[in-house]
Structure formats: C-alpha cells, structure tokens
Amino acid sequence: MGYGLAKFWVRIRNVFFGRKSHEFFVFLFFFVVSAGFWLLQTLDETFETEISIPLALKNVPEKVQITTGLPSQIHITIRDRGTTLFRFFRYTVQNAVEVDFEKYDAGHLTARVQVPVSDVQRMIQSQLGVSSHIISVRPDTLEYYYNRGVAKRLPVKICGSVGASPQNYIQSMNLSEDSVLVYAPNSVLDTMQYAYTQAVSLLGLKENITQSISFQRMKGVKYVPERVEMTAFVGYYAEKTVEVPIIGLNFPGDKELRTFPSKAKVTFRVESGQYQRITADNFVLAVTYEELLQNPSDKYRLHLKSLPDGVTNARISPLEVDYLIERAEMETGIQ
C-alpha cells in the first residue's frame, strides 16, 4: 500500500511540476496578464449603453387615487468611459428615480400631470459622474393621472366569447363582483354605462373554469377592485328516451284515429340539469284531421309540434305509422 501511495504522489508531481506543466503555467500567467491589460484599456474607452432605472411616485396623499400611474421604469442611454458606466450600472440597479407628487399637485379633483423629461434627466444626472452624458430617455413622455374621490359604481360587463364543447353546454356564469367602483373625471364617467372587461376567449369548455379578468384600460380611469373572477359552470348533455302517445286533433265527433303502433319512442339530448324534469308529457305527437284528409298515403310521417327548453337532437321511432279513421261509437242514454 505504501508503494502505491508513493507512486501516486510521483504522478502528481510530474503533472504539476514537470517540464510541460511548467511551460503551461508560464503561458497561463502571461495570458492572464495580457487579458487584464486588454480589459483595462477597453474599459478606458468611451461607450454608449442603455440602462433601465426604476421609476416611482412618492408623497401621494392617502385620499388620492392614482388612476393611471407612471411607467415602472425608464430606459436611458448614456455615454461615458467604460469604468464609469460599470460603476453606475451596479449603483442604479438598486436605486429608483422618485417623482415627488407634491411638487406637481395643483389641488384639482382630477388631473393629468405631465412630468417634464428634463426634470427626470436632472435627477438622473445628479447620480452620474461629471463625465457622463445622457443621450436619450425612453419613454419621452412621462405622465400620470390622479383622482380625489370622483367616482361611481357601474355594473360589470364581460367581453369576449365563452362556449362549451359539442358534448357540453354553459349552465351558468358567475362573477365575484357584479359591480365595481370606477374613478375617473366626470366627463368620462358621464359616458360610461358599464365596466367592460378585457376580451376573454374560452371555447370548447368541458368542465367548470374560473378565470381572473382585468378591465379595459383607459387613461385616467381606475377600477376598484382592479380584477374580477369569472366562473363558467359547465353542464353535460345526456340522452334519454320516452314513449309518447300519438293523438288525433280536430276530428269530428263521430270519427276517431287509430295508429299502429299507438305510441312512438322519442330519443333526445337533454341538459343534465333537466334530465329528471323532462318526461313524455313534455312532448306532443299529434295528427290533425285536416292533415290526414290531404295525405295521399296510408302511412303518416310523425313530427313533433314543439320541443321543450333544454332539449335538442330529438328523433322519433318509428318515424312513420299506419293509421285508420274509424267511426266512433256513440254513447246513448235511456231516459
């Protein structure tokens, strides 16, 4: 075992202290030194770069609603030496540019405030070195809207399409809020009758689904709450068969109808919630005397006069029946 360990250390020594290893480490040393000089020389040159900086609104009073806020961040393009840009990038990642609400507050009930880009540039420039220059700021228009209690409650209106698969149907729709409070200028509120949601597209549903939906965006308009939950309850179709008697209508008192068979099977598709309620009594297979007088055949083709709500795809079996018009037996009484 001692011999094997000694042999192992000899191999390690040859790897790290052999001639080839020595040449490799010398090459590596000069490579690192050269890369360092190249990096320092490169960073000393002038560059342009785009940096994203968080943007925030401060000192907003509790009773003020910001109906449309500032963008969450701005993008600036600056020109400076590489070393300076690197330091600035690390610094700005954790520092937001803050716009003071009180500075632009005119005391109105509702207002649109446009923050001059030059003001934002000055705030950013104060964080830069003397040699740094701001080339551009995006977006070039910074604005926000505020509201001091000008609002009204409006019913919620869902926009879009909600539908079930061919084997299912939409049983009902439910909203977590049937109305919301809308903050907006009076000129806008006077034109609004509903709080319209963003368009939804839920098609081919096979089971219940709940989805959170926001409202249509409008500048200067804020909804409280900002989202509602819509639940679509999905039912399924079931097939059912009932036997329906065939009856005659408008026959003279001395005539009556006989059909063979006297009843027909009606098979139909029904909504699951209506399965127990729909029975043979909800269907009418009626033959009128006038129809038979104009019928050239000794067979009559059956058809349903109407369908109950919730019933589709009704089929009759048999579809045609034989019939006879017989003289009715008159009841007589002895006085």
Word description of this protein:
The structure is a single chain. With 335 residues, this protein is of the alpha+beta class. The chain folds into 4 domains: 2-41; 44-147, RNA Polymerase Alpha Subunit, Chain A, domain 2 (Beta Complex), CATH 2.170.120.30; 151-236, YbbR-like domain (RNA Polymerase Alpha Subunit, Chain A, domain 2, Beta Complex); 237-327, RNA Polymerase Alpha Subunit, Chain A, domain 2 (Beta Complex), CATH 2.170.120.30. The chain contains 7 helices and 22 strands. Strands 10, 14, 16, 18, 19 and 21 form a 6-stranded mixed sheet that branches. Strands 4-1-3-6 form a 4-stranded mixed sheet. A 4-stranded mixed sheet has the order 12-8-11-15, with no helix packed on it. Helix 1 packs across helix 2 (19-43). It starts with a helix and ends in an 8-residue tail after the last strand.
Short description:
22% of the residues lie in helices and 45% in strands. With 335 residues, the chain is of the alpha+beta class. It folds into 4 domains: 2-41; 44-147, Beta Complex (RNA Polymerase Alpha Subunit, Chain A, domain 2), CATH 2.170.120.30; 151-236, YbbR-like domain (RNA Polymerase Alpha Subunit, Chain A, domain 2), CATH 2.170.120.40; 237-327, RNA Polymerase Alpha Subunit, Chain A, domain 2.
Low-confidence stretches: none
Secondary-structure element order, N to C: HHEEEHEHEHEEEEEEHEEEEEEEEHEEE
Q: What is the CATH architecture descriptor of the largest domain?
A: Beta Complex
Distance between the termini: 136 Å
